[in-house]
Design a protein that fits this description.
This is Aquaporin. There is one protein chain. By secondary structure, the protein is an all-alpha fold. The protein has a single domain, classed as Glycerol uptake facilitator protein. Helix content is about 70%, strand content about 0%. The protein has 8 helices and no strands. The radius of gyration is 18 Å and the shape is globular. The protein starts with a helix and ends in an 11-residue tail after the last helix. The mean pLDDT is about 90.
Length: about 220
């Protein structure tokens, strides 16, 4: 039986809040102490994604990302009537999470906001590719043929950590409009925010198209004699 919507929305709001608390919280802690380093922040994002998938995936799917929700809908694997409620829950959860991170931050902190390092055009390209690859991995490992329990969470979280490690210095490696919107709103750093809204959605829709091209099909059978 499909989980009731209110349970799913609570899981998505809670999960997205926790994503911000531990993910952007790691960035804020490193900003103050330099104890984690860039690699530590990337690892924190990967680890929290793994925990969320294993802890909440059976309730809501643990999307915790509006672009992922849109991607699953476009792939025909998520009901359209749940898209807007999921996105709303994710945004609310993200804002709550950023509000909690603000309690730890020093004045003037960006709260882990994603900002282009070398201009909006480069950041857009980086976010487009990172989001494309993340969604493609998600779609492939959650297909019925490949899905193998814990390995799904490990593969997705490793992808997030890898992309944060490599793409973080260039664009912030958001791949998630809610993850970027919340710290931007709470800290007041809304520069080039459109990049982090448009690029993740575009990249994940491109992944849906690519996933369909990669689908294995049986070769045509010769006509019976």
């Amino acid at each position: 039986m499909r989980t009731m919507l209110r349970h799913c929305l609570l899981a998505e709001a809670l999960g997205t809040a926790v994503l911000l608390v531990f993910g952007t919280g790691a960035a804020v802690v490193n900003e103050q102490t330099q104890a984690l380093g860039h690699g530590g922040v990337a690892a924190a994002f990967g680890l929290v994604v793994l925990v969320l998938i294993q802890g909440l995936g059976h309730v809501s799917g643990a999307h915790v990302n509006p672009a992922v929700t849109v991607g699953f809908w476009a792939a025909g694997r998520f009901p359209g009537g749940r898209v807007l409620p999921y996105v709303a829950a994710q945004v609310v959860g993200a804002v709550v999470g950023s509000g909690l991170v603000r309690l730890l931050a020093t004045p003037g902190s960006t709260l882990g906001a994603t900002l282009p390092a070398h201009g909006a055009a480069q950041a857009f390209g980086v976010e487009l590719f990172l989001s494309f690859w993340l969604m493609l991995v998600i779609l492939r490992v959650t297909s019925s043929f490949y899905e193998q329990g814990l390995l799904v969470g490990l593969t997705i979280s490793a992808t997030v950590a890898l992309e944060a490690l490599v793409g973080g210095p260039l664009s912030g490696a958001s791949m998630n409009p809610a993850r970027s919107l919340a710290p931007a709103l709470v800290s007041g750093h809304l520069e080039a925010f459109w990049v982090y809204l448009v690029a993740p959605v575009a990249g994940m829709l491109l992944a849906v198209v690519t996933d369909r091209l990669l689908e294995l099909r049986e070769p045509p059978q010769p006509p019976a004699a």
